[in-house]
Design a protein that fits this description.
The complex is a heterodimer. By secondary structure, chain A is mostly helical. Helix content of chain A is 54%, strand content 5%. The longest helix of chain B is centred in the middle third of the chain and has 22 residues, at 99-120. Chain B is mainly alpha-helical. In chain B, helix 3 packs antiparallel against helix 8 (173-184), helix 4 (84-94) packs antiparallel against helix 5 (99-120) and helix 4 (84-94) packs across helix 9 (189-209). Classes of the chains: A mainly alpha, B mainly alpha. The interface between A and B is large, with 41 and 42 residues.
Chain lengths: 266, 232
Amino acid sequence: MNLPELTHETRTAHWGWHEHRYFGQRVFEQLAGQETLTGLTILSVLGRRLAGDASGVVDDAACTLTLADPRIWPLKLTRLIAAYGSTLPAAAAGLLSEEDARIGPWTTAKGAELLLAFDAEIGDRVDETETVRAIVKAYLDEHRFVWGFGTPFRGEDERLVAFRACIRQRERESLRFWRLMDAISAVVREARGTEPNMGIAIAAAFLDLGLTPHQVGSLTSALMQHMFLAHAVEGSAQGASLRELPATYVEFVGHAPRPSPRAEDQ
Amino acid sequence: MSAQQLDGPLESGSSFPARLTARVVTPGERPLVHGYDVEGDLARHYQPSDLLFLLLMGELPPAPASRAFSVALMFLSPVSVAHASTHAAVVGRLCGAPASSTFGVAAIGAAEHARALLDDHAELFPWLRAPRGSLPERFRARDASDLAAVQRLELALEPTGLAVPALAERPSRDAALLMVLFAVGFKRRERLEAAIMLARLPSGIAEALAERPTNFGNYPINLPRFAYTESP
């Protein structure tokens, strides 16, 4: 039977005979031997390569983001699934917990949306302290939770401190969104006593690279996969110790024992 | 090599409970679900769909809701390979992945399928909570086949004794099933999503298991044909 052909457009890739294409690049001729894994990751998320020291900024972000203690909830989740002995399902489970979550890499996308919203209001007046204060305070009056602010269990986000040093070294502190983040942070600190966290810093640095909020979230997720993989690899090799906790470590707070209506009718 | 004694925010200055909290299933040798003895009571007097209802809603369904919930699960269950959720599970099987990984793909697909359905019907629920005026047009049956499916649903619901007045508005099949779930008590989105996902999951798994691993030659690789472009 002759069926009309269904087509779907892709800019991602094509499998050729002797050469393959990836986002407009010839894989063997233009990527092999020239591009890094970071560069490939950027190409995968943005669909284009970035010039200058963009790869360096992304590498700085990946390194300073590396907070991989297995007690941190998304990583713990990976560790728990890894207890059944497989590696990639455990890593995939961690990945699943990221998009649109309240913690983890997708908070950078939310932070980027916030920065873009403030940028639309503040524009080129980022050095006008009173203007920035009025705009940010009006926002704070309407929002109890502010993406990109708050550093649980410590006074400041040590990752941001380290990332800021990298950004300073690359002379990118004066770029539009990094400056905007600093200006907003001053008002939030004054009004709420909370510090900016790594989420908003990554958002600012990646907006300064020209990314959209969705790209910011996707790229940050990619940059954090090494941590999930590490726990999936180690956890799957460790065996079954996490599969079931001894009952004494679990407290039941639900409904008291009761007979069902049909049992009572008998 | 001995473990290093390092200090950090989780070692000092913060307080967390020492035990995990169970809220639904009682841990131990004789499990209770929301207080009901599964092995000594529920297994003797109830159906699996009642246990599913109990798990998600916290209470056993009254008889009409129990039967209507079963009907809704039955209507929700078939998801053919034409749908991306089941199709993805079949492709997972083709790849020769372990069965457990294929089930994982099917579960993700079913969850995303359910989420998308509820996204598409987000405006239906305010109307169901306060049905002023007629059903919004976008949730009405689109064709005779849709109408016939809803008629079959009404027929299957008849013996349950559950009244779903919204069905008189000539809804689409999907909207009608959401109306039934709403009528039996599924008012919160997360629980609706869970019920739909769980109803549909077996279809994806079954279709995948019916495929032979690495049967690539029998798979229409150009459905659809991905047309590569380098234009921005």
